[in-house]
């Protein structure tokens, strides 16, 4: 089965060496497990210097065809990214495959008053937005904001990364109400969560993501291969959903979509 | 067998009954903190069948929460229904010291009861408190081992500083640090502890949500001290098993983690009254 | 009491003649919040306008995940502005085994004056083993240590600092932000009055209710009070005007802005040369 991983990172981390250090290491691990492509960001964009990290990600992706760049963004201040124009230019030039947000670590809220400019742009581009939250750091208010964003920007695919195993009471109702809400498979480890979401809301809502190298990717490959769901649904999760979302991105200028 | 054959079999979705997998860390039922799918013992055994897991070692969720006696009844009931598939942990409330002896007398003679599970956080008692010390004395006397929940420095009841303090006083009792300490920093500490203390062991669940790699454990710890546990049904059983099956370890290491290390542990601490 | 510096500041003069040293600067932009481009060139332009002669910097990446890349950036800045940019070597206590290499790489450059540590960003307690190993190296190789401190922080509060700094009486430690919170500043003062190797800087706690004259008055040895601005996290003008406009005698201001830092540099020579 083909696998496309929408949740991978390169770069260093403070408390320890992660088990993949380089893009080459990552490609080797992907080959071992049969992961065809990975969406990557650079950890500098998360933890130290945003623009430096974004440039590092696109550079790496240029040199490694199996890797697709993800751009880390924040509310679209005129002062950052060169405003809307600068952001669009960067996204098009580098064929950015998704935008990733760290609301807590980057000090903004997901509430529409704060992120409306960003989400207006994301909506125009039909750009998948990956929201990075380890489950233990999200407050209840942030799920409220997530829900409102999904409702107000129905054309933006909103993907909650690493939803964790304690979040069903929050995420099931959003899945029920919002067709544009997705979760990835990294730490979707609650008992039968993959099977339940597939049965109740559709496999369309789950995207294959590993959070490598913070987490070991093999287990998430295995989780889908052994899932108690149809072959067709497994394929949707493993790659078809993200291929579909990717085909819907509108790059205003420059070349064709990948 | 080539070094990758378990991985290849897993990639083609084989089951692994030939490995006689024992899952050393399971619960049973549904807790209150968050929702997961229903997990009665029949359902858990069905899941175990689909992955080829031979035995589940269970401590029902009730046992580590408010009604530990009900938890023990559920544990016994599961053993009676699936005698060849279920091992049980005796659960005890450290505040109810007057009930220890009766609990041990009731459950320890049952062959499939292999030790004691404690969850200091669930019972809001520090692992170095008097109640737990009395429980460890009983285990010292009666055999078996102790599976204890552990977590990072922020856990006031069972962080590894407290665990070390409590466990080093009982060198004749075997302890498994469930979740290997859990957080990034605590896993490093747990690795130091298993290297330092012959009677302390680790399991492979919980710290899977941290940034440690299973290979780090096999490289840094005495191999036979690492036991496969999944935290099923808090976590999906498929997830715990695939973590081992798809890891970058040799087949003999995978077999050791999934079965042999547990057998060695069990043989090493027989119960005196069984 | 002479306050000609205040009068000059009111007339918007620049202060090249004071030979100002800013001992607490960063460099570059930070993902956590937005501020304008703050590479070394715009920073030095701001410094020139205000008449700050020397800035001691640690590149942004240095106190984060990519600390070694940060050290390279710091070196480049020091080489671009010799005599005007002084650098701190950033180190990661989780990877203390790399520290000696980093020091041996950067210390031979005259532009480096010491080590900057940020226990909060690194998620490691100021008195942990990794930091002790780093301080052992500073003891051997010279220079001083600028430490981020903040009282509410489980990693960088003043108690942890005191616990480890008493063990290294030969190393001058600058408590960046002087403990930060209202309570932290009180504790930092007590620590500085107890240990002669403790210095305080005057940024960060500017957001608390303590005034600079209050600090200068309560320090038994006010020559260990240093000007630092936290630039570019805070605007350079802000940090500097805080001193220029303070209700302090000119001689005290001269000490804070320049001669105290000069004395610190003299007191902490590096013992690792080309």
Account of the 3D structure:
Chain A has 258 residues and is α/β, with parallel strands linked by helices. Chain A contains ten helices and eight strands. Chain A has one domain: TIM Barrel, CATH 3.20.20. Helices cover 43% and strands 14% of the residues of chain A. An eight-stranded parallel sheet of chain A has the order 1-2-3-4-5-6-7-8. Chain A is globular and about 50 Å long. The two termini of chain A are 20 Å apart. Chain B has 274 residues and is of the alpha/beta class. Chain B has one domain (5-267): Metal-dependent hydrolases (TIM Barrel), CATH 3.20.20. Chain B has eleven helices and eight strands. Chain B starts with a helix and ends in a 6-residue tail after the last helix. With 274 residues, chain C is of the alpha/beta class. Chain C has a single domain (4-267), classed as TIM Barrel, CATH 3.20.20.140. Chain C is built from eleven helices and eight strands. In chain C, strands 1-2-3-4-5-6-7-8 form an eight-stranded parallel sheet, sandwiched between helices. In chain C, strand 1 (20-25), helix 2 and strand 2 (52-57) form a beta-alpha-beta unit. Chain C is globular and about 50 Å long. The chains are: A alpha/beta (258), B alpha/beta (274), C alpha/beta (274). Chain A binds chain B through residues 13, 15-16, 18-19, 29, 32-34, 164-169, 172, 187, 189-196, 213-216, 218-223, 225-228, and chain B through 7, 10-11, 13, 33-37, 39, 50-51, 184-185, 188, 208-209, 211-216, 232-239, 241-243, 245-248.
């Amino acid at each position: 089965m083909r696998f496309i991983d929408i949740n991978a990172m390169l770069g260093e981390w403070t408390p320890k060496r992660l088990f993949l250090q380089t893009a080459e290491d990552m490609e080797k691990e992907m080959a071992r497990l049969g992961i065809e492509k990975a969406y990557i960001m650079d950890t500098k964009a998360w933890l130290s210097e945003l623009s430096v990290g974004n440039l590092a990600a696109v550079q790496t992706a240029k040199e490694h065809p199996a890797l697709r760049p993800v751009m880390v963004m924040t509310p679209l201040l005129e002062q950052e990214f060169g405003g809307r124009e600068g952001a669009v230019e960067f996204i098009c030039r580098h064929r950015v495959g998704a935008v990733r947000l760290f609301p807590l670590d980057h000090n903004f809220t997901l509430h529409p008053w704060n992120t409306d400019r960003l989400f207006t742009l994301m909506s125009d581009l039909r750009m998948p937005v990956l929201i990075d939250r380890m489950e233990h750091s999200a407050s209840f208010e942030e799920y409220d904001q997530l829900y409102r964003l999904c409702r107000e920007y129905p054309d933006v695919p909103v993907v909650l990364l690493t939803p964790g195993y304690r979040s069903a009471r929050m995420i099931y109702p959003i899945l029920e109400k919002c067709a544009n809400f997705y979760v990835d498979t990294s730490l979707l480890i609650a008992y039968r969560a993959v099977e339940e979401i597939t049965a109740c809301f559709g496999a369309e809502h789950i995207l294959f993501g590993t959070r490598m190298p913070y987490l070991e990717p093999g287990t998430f490959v295995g989780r889908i291969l052994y899932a108690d769901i149809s072959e067709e649904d497994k394929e949707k999760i493993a790659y078809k959903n993200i291929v579909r979302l990717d085909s819907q991105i509108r790059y205003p200028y420059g070349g064709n979509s990948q | 067998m080539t070094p990758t054959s378990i991985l290849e079999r897993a990639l083609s979705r084989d089951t692994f009954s030939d490995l006689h997998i024992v899952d050393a860390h399971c619960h049973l039922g549904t807790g209150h903190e968050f929702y997961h799918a229903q997990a009665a013992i029949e359902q858990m055994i069905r899941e175990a069948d689909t992955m080829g897991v031979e035995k589940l070692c269970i401590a029902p969720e009730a046992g580590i929460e408010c009604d530990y006696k009900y938890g023990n009844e559920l544990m016994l009931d599961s053993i009676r229904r699936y005698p060849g598939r279920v091992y049980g942990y005796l659960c005890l409330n450290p505040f109810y010291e007057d009930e220890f002896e009766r609990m041990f007398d009731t459950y320890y003679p049952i062959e499939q009861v292999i030790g004691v599970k404690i969850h200091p956080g669930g019972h809001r008692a520090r692992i170095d408190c008097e109640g737990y010390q009395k429980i460890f004395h009983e285990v010292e006397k009666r055999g078996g081992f102790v599976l204890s929940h552990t977590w990072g420095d922020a856990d006031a009841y069972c962080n590894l500083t407290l665990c070390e303090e409590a466990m080093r006083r009982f060198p004749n009792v075997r302890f498994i640090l469930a979740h290997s300490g859990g957080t990034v920093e605590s896993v490093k500490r747990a690795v130091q502890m298993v290297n330092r203390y012959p009677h302390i062991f680790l399991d492979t669940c919980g710290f899977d949500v941290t940034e440690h790699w299973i290979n780090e454990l096999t490289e840094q710890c005495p191999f036979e001290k690492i036991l496969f546990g999944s935290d099923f049904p808090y976590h999906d059983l498929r997830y715990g098993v695939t973590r081992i099956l798809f890891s970058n370890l040799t087949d003999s290491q995978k077999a050791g983690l999934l079965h042999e290390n547990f057998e060695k542990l069990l043989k090493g601490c027989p119960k005196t009254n069984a | 009491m002479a306050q000609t510096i205040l009068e000059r500041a009111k007339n918007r003069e620049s202060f090249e003649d004071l030979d100002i040293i800013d001992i607490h600067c960063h460099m570059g932009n930070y993902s956590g919040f937005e501020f304008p481009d703050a590479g070394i060139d715009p920073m030095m332009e701001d410094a020139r306008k205000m008449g700050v002669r020397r800035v001691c910097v640690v590149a942004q990446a240095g106190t984060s995940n990519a600390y070694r890349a940060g050290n390279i950036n710091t070196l480049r800045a020091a080489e671009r502005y010799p005599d005007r940019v002084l650098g701190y070597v950033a180190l990661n206590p989780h990877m203390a085994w790399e520290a000696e290499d980093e020091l041996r790489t950067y210390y031979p450059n005259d532009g480096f004056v010491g080590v900057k540590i940020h226990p909060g960003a690194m998620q490691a307690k100021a008195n942990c083993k990794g930091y002790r190993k780093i301080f052992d190296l500073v003891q051997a190789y010279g220079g001083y240590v600028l430490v981020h401190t903040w009282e509410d922080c489980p990693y960088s509060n003043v108690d942890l600092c005191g616990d480890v700094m008493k063990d290294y009486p030969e190393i001058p430690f600058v408590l960046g932000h002087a403990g930060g919170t209202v309570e932290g500043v009180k504790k930092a003062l007590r620590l500085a009055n107890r240990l002669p190797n403790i210095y305080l800087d005057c940024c960060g706690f500017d957001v608390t209710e303590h005034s600079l004259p209050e600090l200068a008055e309560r320090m038994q040895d006010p020559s260990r009070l240093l000007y630092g601005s936290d630039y570019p996290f805070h605007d350079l003008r802000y940090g500097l005007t805080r001193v220029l406009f303070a209700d302090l005698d000119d001689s005290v201001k001269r000490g804070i802005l320049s001669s105290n830092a000069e004395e610190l540099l003299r007191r902490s020579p590096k013992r690792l040369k080309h």
